Amino acid sequence: PQQHYPAVMARGSHLAACVAAIAVASVISAAYAEVFFEERFDDGWEGRWVKSDWKKDENMAGDWIHTAGNWSGDPNDKGIQTNPDYRFFAISAQFPEFSNKDKTLVIQYSVKHEQKLDCGGAYLKLLSGDIDQKTFGGETNYSIMFGPDICGYSMKKVHAILYRRGKNHLIRKDVTCETDQLTHVYTFIIRSDMTYSIL
């Protein structure tokens, strides 16, 4: 079967995004949910994720640090954090093919920007299985892109984009993202009746 990849992308000047947990689930009812992918970034996470070489030849590639970050309630509860500032970041993990036909799809993850951002994004992308994880970058095709984007005073929004048949389908309303230095959970719910919610 074809594999799929949840992929985390971050870009930024003055960016320290900490991604703590990622879950992709399909929900049939409130009592039953099939989880297709879940990551808690515990020991062994590096064996499940592939760090991309995107922007490495331009000396603009950043790295990922496994840390609880600042202001942690539990030093053992860790995520991955971008480092250093003013770089581009891409990382992906593989999971088996799934279908959410006639089901609700839920994509959820948490982000903590530990410092004030000048410009940066912390997107989650759902990629198809035919990509090279080592070269995954900003131009890599995706099925879903979701997450916060902050740039200056004018851009503070949550992107939710579906890609189908060569075209990006953006949501028609602005959803403001959080800009403080606390942890926030972002949830994208896509229902089989073609409706969605962003929490």
TrEMBL record:
Gene3D superfamilies: 2.60.120.200. PANTHER family: CALRETICULIN, CALRETICULIN AND CALNEXIN. It is found in: Endoplasmic reticulum. This is Calreticulin-2. The keyword Endoplasmic reticulum applies. Belongs to the calreticulin family. The keyword Coiled coil does not apply. GO terms for biological process: ERAD pathway; protein folding.
